[in-house]
Amino acid sequence: MEVPGLKFRLAPMCRVFRIASALLLALPVAFAILGLRYQAVLLWTAALLAAGYAWVWLRMRPSAFVVQPDRLEVLWPLRRESLPRGAITGARVVAGRDLKAELGWAMRVGAGGLWGGFGWLYTQRRGKVRMYISRIDRLVWIEVRDGRPWLITPDDPDAFVSRLSA
Predict the structure, then answer these.
(1) Per-residue pLDDT tens digits for 43-78
(2) Which of 28, 36, 38, 118 is a plausible cystine mate for 49, CB 3.0–4.6 Å?
(3) What's the whole-model pTM score?
(4) What is the pLDDT of residues 77-110, one digit of tens each?
(5) Contact in structure between 159 and 146 (CB atoms under 8 Å)
(6) In whole angstroms, what is the distance from residue 37 CA to residue 116 CA?
């Protein structure tokens, strides 16, 4: 079902995430090859990794952000979530290098490296931040009234912020 509104796909991965993803995607293949040659238990390891990767793709990595008149919708292959526009108090494009100064130390909890970083970002100065990023620069920071901020990477961050702020 097509969602009305202005749709922004998840941004293409930056080089860091492309390299990390390639390395991580090679792991189940390597375990499968070793399992066929040496120990069958490694086949289970390969299957477990592949299942985990499918979970990340289908449930953790969003495919698009849709700006509706009354809400921001986040779409995943197997789920969707809405954030009411009235709860959004601001949105801005931020450089990755500027986040450290603003947030202090940070620790990701969720999926990281494979196709991006998805889940929670625990930060020293802002506490928990919802994070759905596929690159480490030109991120969109969304302030939420009575909620956790969001950090996302739509494919056109300037147009996204303009549309969301309108």
Answers:
(1) 999 999 999 999 999 999 999 999 999 999 999 999
(2) 28
(3) 0.90
(4) 999 999 999 999 999 999 988 998 889 999 999 8
(5) no
(6) 32
C-alpha 164 chain-centroid distance: 19
| Segment (H or E) for 6 | strand 6-9
For the record, the structure tokens of 6 come out as: 């202005």
- Look up residue 102 and give its two tokens: 């603003």
